[in-house]
Amino acid sequence: MNQTPMTAAGAAKLEEELKRLRSVERPRIIAAIAEARELGDLKENAEYHAAREEQGFVEGRIKEIEAKLSHAQIIDVTRMPPGDKVIFGATVELLDLDTDSEIRYKIVGDDEADIKQNLISIHSPIARALIGKSVGDEVTFNAPGGKTRTFEIVEVEYIA
């Protein structure tokens, strides 16, 4: 199977969630199921059914995280050689040529993307347009909604 790029910070976040699910959530749900079983008839026991449903969700999430981590190509951006070329993990300062406003994006893996924190997926239209470009280059791409946007790359950094 193909490896999926992920920053070291993104991998650490998933590892932390996996640890919490295994060591906190799983035991709590097992205790809730045991407690619900003591209440008697399982057919009409809402607590039992709710706990079993939650257990299914948690076990599914554990398997999902394990699969993501097993197929992750973890890239430590702090070890990237300094340069002005945009690659995975780069933090890019852009000048919007339409509005003259500046914005910073960090290019991360799909699971790490969060537009509210200016973390964009490597597979997003803007990231695909930026990859391989250098400081001073103009980048034009089709944004969601069909609008064409043009940016100039002002700065490229590799920070954690």
Largest sheet: 5 strands, mixed
Overall geometric form: elongated
Q: Report the strand count.
A: 7
Helix proportion range: 25-40%
**What structural class is derived from the secondary structure elements?**
alpha/beta
What is the first-to-last residue Cα distance? Answer: 27 Å
Output the strand order for the largest sheet: 5-4-3-7-6
Number of helices: 3
Which regions have little confidence, pLDDT < 50, spanning 5+ residues? none
List the secondary-structure elements in sequence, H or E: EHHEEEEHEE
Strand share of the residues? 25-35%
Mean pLDDT: 88
Radius of gyration from CA coordinates: 22 Å
Explain what you see:
The chain is an alpha/beta fold. Helices cover 38% and strands 25% of the residues. It contains 3 helices and 7 strands. The chain has helices at 8-37, 46-70, 125-130; strands at 4-7, 72-75, 91-96, 101-108, 119-121, 138-142, 148-157. The protein has a 5-stranded mixed β-sheet. The protein has a two-stranded parallel ribbon with strand order 1-2. α1 runs antiparallel to α2. The longest helix is centred in the N-terminal third of the chain and has 30 residues, at 8-37.
